[in-house]
Specification:
Elements (H helix, E strand, L loop, with lengths): L4 E2 L6 H12 L18 H13 L3 H8 L4 E8 L3 E10 L7 E6 L10 H8 L8 E6 L17 H14 L5 E5 L2 H12 L3 E6 L13 H9 L4 H16 L2 H8 L1 H10 L1 H14 L8 H12 L10 H8 L2 H7 L8 E5 L9 H4 L5 E6 L7 H4 L1 H12 L23
Parallel strand pairs: 4-5, 4-6, 6-7, 7-8, 8-9
Antiparallel strand pairs: 1-2, 2-3, 3-5
């Protein structure tokens, strides 16, 4: 593994100066009286955040904090695309037989989401399983390379993630994902026997089918939805009707949108901030927290526009695969954590036909970014699923998460 090299984020000073210059020159649209959040991010919020980004936000402070994470880069080969330079966080547990866990982010997230759960999962407590955690920046995101030609769809993202785990010596592993990380986890489960279980915190799909899942369909027809599930479905329908415009643009004309968010830091800020606000459950975002999150996109290796292309490519490169991951994925034990304010909130009966479900948890609060909003709950769910007595205990051969501590490897 000599080609795996330590990595530190070091944004060049000219880029920081360029950002300040652009913010100095920013102009803003007007806003309708009383619009609030109904038409998007409020003008007052964006003006305040842009001013803070320009004059008060200290990127170097946040950069130093990020660099306390154990970060690396390595080349991962992908068929048809050559070797890709992949950035990732890799934290080993002191427990030799810890469970290798691949954490996969989505959009508009990044590797930074793993930071709040890294120590609890790797260090943990004696009665709980420990994990070796790997959290890559997906290609086109963060500090991984950008992709220079079309055809890089979900299969290729899965190939990168699996290839990285193989490169690190993990012949068997489990996955955790939300947003695109949920989809990519499913593709990995379909294509690679090395994936021994998946835990998801975004659950998609529809009700049980009479032709494919007749027993589940009967149960679904007989047992009514709970009040929570009814509320979740109403929220999901509202999101589909009023909150998916970004999907339509990013899945059809990402290049056109890309000009705006690449050239304008205010445009990028508004585009991402809206989602951070709308997709969380009253999470108390600080201005610096938002700006640090957005800055990772602004300073990303391939530029923020590249991150949009996963929507287009997943729907155009192999649309059948996108359908497959919404169906039943056999063989891979599945854990599902339901957070009430996620963008999609479906009944448990819908989740149970996505695969062999061995763990479920319903949480009273929380939204789309579980690892960031509700890190303790997510950690507890993983411990319950993979710990002694859990439905996925011992799925990785010789790596049950328990045992004596050794020197960090």
């Amino acid at each position: 593994m000599s080609d795996i090299k330590p990595f530190e984020i070091a944004v060049p000073e000219p880029q920081l100066a360029r950002l300040k210059q652009k913010l100095d020159l920013a102009s803003f649209p007007d806003e309708l009286d009383g619009a609030g959040w109904d038409m998007g991010a409020p003008l007052s919020d964006i003006k305040r955040l842009a001013a803070r980004w320009r004059d008060g936000f200290d990127w170097r402070e946040h950069e130093a904090r990020l660099n306390r994470l154990p970060q690396f880069r390595t080349a991962v080969p992908v068929e048809g695309f050559g070797d890709l330079d992949i950035h990732f966080v890799h934290q080993n547990s002191l427990v030799k037989d810890a469970i290798p866990l691949l954490f996969i982010h989505g959009w508009p997230g990044s590797f930074v989401e793993v930071s709040k759960i890294l120590a609890p999962l790797t260090e943990g407590i004696e009665a709980s399983p420990r994990f070796h955690v790997v959290a890559p920046s997906l290609p086109n995101f963060g500090f991984s390379t950008g992709i220079g030609k079309t055809g890089f769809g979900l299969a290729q993202y899965a190939e990168v993630c699996h290839g990285l785990m193989s490169r690190l010596g993990y012949q068997e592993y489990v996955t955790q994902g939300g947003d695109w990380g949920s989809h990519i986890s499913r593709v990995i489960g379909l294509r690679y026997a090395s994936c021994k279980a998946s835990h998801l915190n975004m659950i998609l799909g529809g009700p049980p089918s009479w032709s494919r899942e007749p027993l589940s369909a009967v149960q679904h027809a007989v047992f009514p939805y709970s009040e929570r599930e009814k509320t979740g479905l109403r929220n999901t329908r509202d999101f589909i009707k009023n909150g998916t415009g970004y999907q339509a643009e990013q899945a059809t004309k990402p290049q056109t949108l890309g000009y705006g968010i690449h050239d304008s830091p205010v445009g990028l800020l508004a585009w991402v901030y809206e989602k951070l606000h709308d997709w969380t459950d009253d999470y108390p975002w600080t201005d610096d927290e938002v700006l640090a999150w957005v800055s990772i996109y602004y300073f990303s290796a391939a530029g923020p526009a590249s991150s949009l292309r996963i929507y287009y490519e997943s729907r155009h490169t192999d649309p059948a695969l996108l359908t497959d991951v919404g169906g039943y994925v056999p063989r891979v034990p599945l854990g599902l954590s339901y957070f009430p304010k996620d963008i999609y909130s479906v009944p448990k009966s819908w989740g149970r036909v996505r695969g062999p479900v061995v763990f479920e948890a319903e949480h009273e609060t929380g939204g789309h970014f579980a690892a960031w909003e509700k890190p303790q709950q997510l950690v507890e769910d993983l411990r319950a699923m993979f710990g002694r007595g859990g439905g996925a205990f011992g799925v990785v051969k010789g790596k049950d998460g328990y045992g004596r501590e050794t020197a960090r490897i």
